Amino acid sequence: DYFANYNTDASFVLISPAIIRAETSRSKLAHLLKSLLPEILVKLLKHPYQYFASKYYRKGDSFLRKSYDLIVRRDLRDLLGRIDKKRLLLIYGNSDSETPYQLVQKDVKKHEINHFVIKGGEHSIGQTHPNQISQAIYKFLSNRS
After folding, report:
1. pLDDT digits (tens, 9 = 90+) for 118-130
2. In whole angstroms, what is the distance from residue 6 CA to residue 2 CA?
3. Confidence (pLDDT) at 141
4. Which residues pair with 90 in a beta bridge?
5. Which residues contact 29 (CB under 8 A, 6 or more apart)?
6. Cβ contacts of residue 111 below 8 Å, gap of 6+?
7. Cα separation of 100 and 89, whole Å?
8. Spatial distance between the Cα atoms of 1 and 8, rounded to a whole number of angstroms
9. Measured distance CA(71)–CA(117) in Å, rounded
10. What SS3 class is residue 54?
11. 116 near 123, Cβ under 8 Å?
12. Is the pLDDT confidence value at 7 over 70?
């Protein structure tokens, strides 16, 4: 969002970005219940629901929990067409079920966004595939010079 809305010369590398999330049966049920419950009850139940529904929310600090609400639950695919594609690299794992590359693949290719997909990588590729990530970043930055 920041990259698309502000003029900056910085390059950005996003690892397993939550551009869009897959809608699960659980999230569909939560949306239905949210529409049926009074707003005050929805506000009271939000934290306990997210705490039990998401290991990332549960393990996160207060900053991560606020980010989860502001970023993870949004569909940001429309922003891909508004960014300087030469200054962005997206890195995904092909086995990531939290933020699947397959959901953004069409938009990434349409807007010719730099991307790298790690074979066998899941959502935690930052911890499991640091060498491949470093190589992808190095190649991306080298091509920019």
Report:
1. 999 999 999 999 9
2. 6
3. 92
4. 14, 115
5. none
6. 80, 81, 83, 85
7. 16
8. 12
9. 21
10. coil
11. no
12. no
Rounded-to-integer distance, Cα 53 and Cα 14, Å: 24
Query: Which residues make beta-bridge pairs with 89?
Result: 13, 114
Half-sphere exposure of 3 (CA within 13 A, CB side): 20
Give the Cα separation of 53 and 46 in Å (integer).
Answer: 10
Q: How far is residue 80 from each of residues 50, 76, 94, measured CA to CA in Å? A: 27, 7, 20
| 70's tokens | 């502001």
pLDDT of 60 over the 80 cut: yes
Residues 6+ apart with CB under 8 A from 117: 91, 92, 93, 94, 101
> How much is the mean pLDDT over the chain?
87
The pTM of the whole model exceeds 0.85:
no
Tens digits of per-residue pLDDT, 65-115?
Answer: 877 766 666 788 888 888 888 889 999 999 998 889 999 999 999 999 999
Cα–Cα distance for residue pair 67/44, rounded to 1 Å: 19
Instruction: Answer yes or no: is pLDDT of 22 > 90.
Output: no
Residue 6: band (very low, low, confident or very high) from pLDDT cuts 50, 70, 90:
low
Within its chain, how far is the Cα of 112 from the centroid? 18
